Amino acid sequence: MAKQEVINFLQKVKEDESFKAKIKETKDSDQFIELARSSGYDITLDELEAVMKENLSDELSDKDLESIAGGGLFGLMAKWSDALANFLDTLDRFKFDISFEVK
Prior knowledge:
Shape: globular
Structural class: mainly alpha
Radius of gyration: 13 Å
Order of helices and strands: HHHHHH
Number of domains: 1
Largest sheet: none
Distance between the termini: 10 Å
Low-confidence stretches: none
């Protein structure tokens, strides 16, 4: 997994309002990943969840961690809109410091 690629994608979503708007328009996880890839980010949902969990664990509550670990960030949500809202809420609540060491 290319963690830096995921971090770059997260930073883009967080900082670029027009890109975030495109993300919000996705209808399902396939379209979400296709948008990421067509924008130059070769990532998967599993990689995205893993990086968010690993690098934000100090900032997340136990409930947030359980949600991500249990697939709740994307996987177990009944509706894509709920999963996407959960992702954006998790991302928006924290300031990304991309200067941390990528393992």
